[in-house]
C-alpha cells in the first residue's frame, strides 16, 4: 500500500533522454504513439503508461523496443487529454487527481485502439503490457477483455484480485523485491489466489534487490548493479509475448 507522503508507488526515477522512432496519431478521441517494424506483421502490443503519461520518453523507449522485436507497438493516451502527473506536483493532491484517472476504467479507450490495430494496422494477435498505473490496468483487462491474447503487468498495484482471480488470458506479473508500495505479502496472496482459481497460464516473478519501476525507470549505465535485472525483466517480458503472440 502507498504511504501518505507518496500515495502512488510511481517515482520518476531516471527520465530517459529519448526522442522515439514512431509517430503520434489521432484515433477517434484518443491520441497515441505508434511504432511499426520494417516488415509486415499481424502481431501488436498495446503499451499502457504509468502516471507520467503517454508522452514520457521511458514509455516510448519500451514501445520502440517491442518494435525492434517484431511487434507493432502503440501507446495510447489513456488519460484522454487530461494532464499527466508531474514530479513537481504536490503528492497531497494525488488522490483527487487519480479519481478521474481510474485504471479500471480503460475499456472504452481499449476498444477504440483494438479497432484501429485491426482495421488500420492489420493486427490479428494483440497483447498488452503496462507499468505501475498501467500494470493495474493490465490486471483489470486480463480479468475482463476477451479480445486480448496475453498481458504483462509490471509492478501494477494489486487492485483487481480481491473478488476474483480467474484470468481470461495468460498473464505475467513482474514485481520488485524491495518495492515499498507492493509488499511481498500481497504478491504471495496474489499467487495463492491464482493457484486456487486460475485456469490459464500465469507467472509471478520477483526480481531480487529491485525497486518499483526498475524495468523502465532505471538506466543501465547509471545503475550498474541493477543492469542484469533490468535486462532480465525486459527479456522475460519479450519472451512471454513471443510465447503467446
From TrEMBL:
This protein's UniProt keywords: Cytoplasm
GO MF annotations, alphabetized: hydrolase activity
Gene Ontology cellular-component terms listed: cytosol
Domain Dienelactone hydrolase, residue spans: 30-245
Places the protein is found: Cytoplasm, Cytosol
Record-linked SUPFAM superfamilies: alpha/beta-Hydrolases
PANTHER family (alphabetical): CARBOXYMETHYLENEBUTENOLIDASE HOMOLOG
Homology family: Belongs to the dienelactone hydrolase family.
Protein name: Carboxymethylenebutenolidase homolog
Provenance organism: Indicator maculatus (spotted honeyguide)
